[in-house]
């Protein structure tokens, strides 16, 4: 392992793993408490549409996927706000539309398969400096916003009506959260893979929920689970020559099972 | 909530997040997400900060415990909200309103779904706050007996303003008929006969 750290692609994969492990679990706690797990799946497929368009246009796929996914995520939030549809319905619609677009974009490109597979299943070899740069940028944005917004998002997740008696810009808060979640999903795609992103975000937060009854602790524990499973998962995937994203998610599942066994059910009724 | 017309001012200044903190509010319907990981202390501290609390400073902790003890719920401080009964939860919500030491306290049906002893207790707690903090208390209720005994002024509403006056003025037979839309026979009001401690 130590000698492998000399390879730049390994270094990039590890740094990216730590950053997306942090980002995914940080937003995961809000996704879990707001019952929006399906949003992860939806946005991952939106990212697929964006990546496919980027591949078709022969540009850096992330440059297209970032705005594409953010727009879809804002559209989901808007649809939920404006119509009587539940969010899973609007996610379900936009998710299929984005995936359909992605499939058509990919089919229009002749030599497509290899690149597309990288995004679908994730690849630790594929993390380029530009990916790392964007991930670091999203991490900085996350840290900057969290000082003010962690408590506001948490309050609105706890009780939306009650939080409105203290906070006036709750709708704007929602849009900011959706945008940052969309960005997190896009920058996680290359390492984790579109197919696995939703689980990657939800499992550390869900595991943390099982072992504590305070939201602040849930957040910290989720982040610890997210980062350690990313590092350990990448190490295992190098050692065993297995796909990184899949190994990380399986490790998270092990953590979840342990949490479910040792968790204090009396606190969680 | 959006105002449909006019302006809302609190103590002479327009509504914003800062002066919202001058109001203590206890909602009738508890719309909390039951699966959210929170203890009573967190909810009270949310009232203090106007946002969800992370780690509490010692002085914040003391204030929250003080508010909880005012409502007789200090022992609930570290209990999960999801494990509390209706009455216990109501006390915690009142502590959340008290902790910011509001000069205006608004309670919406504060004793609905609460057992008889707790009901007396909660009215006592509210009266005490009203007196000790010299705060204005607005109590929304369908329980006219409680309104009669615990208020200085009563605003009787049924789609329109029926009466605004002292409890005695408000709860005269004519007004009661107007408010509760009884026609044809006169109800014997029980206020005069009933003694309240």
**Count of the separate structural domains of chain A:** 1
Please state the average pLDDT score of chain A: 90
Oligomeric form? heterodimer
Given the C-alpha coordinates, what overall shape of chain A results?
globular
The total count of helices of chain B amounts to: 8
The run of helices and strands of chain B is EEHEHHHEHEHEEHH
- Strand content bin of chain A: under 5%
Largest sheet of chain B: 3 strands, parallel
Helix content of chain A: over 70%
Q: Label the CATH architecture of one domain in chain B.
A: 3-Layer(aba) Sandwich
Largest interface: A-B, 30 and 33 residues
Main sheet of chain A? Answer: none
What is the fold named in CATH at topology level of one domain in chain B? Rossmann fold
The overall strand count of chain B is: 7
Blueprint of the fold:
The complex is a heterodimer of chains A (269) and B (197).
Chain A: H1 8-33, H2 37-56, H3 61-82, H4 87-108, H5 113-121, H6 129-158, H7 160-163, H8 170-192, H9 197-211, H10 215-240, H11 244-262
Chain B: E1 9-10, E2 13-14, H1 17-20, E3 23-26, H2 40-49, H3 58-70, H4 86-98, E4 104-108, H5 116-132, E5 136-140, H6 144-150, E6 154-158, E7 160-165, H7 167-170, H8 173-180
Parallel strand pairs in B: 3-4, 4-5
Antiparallel strand pairs in B: 1-2, 6-7
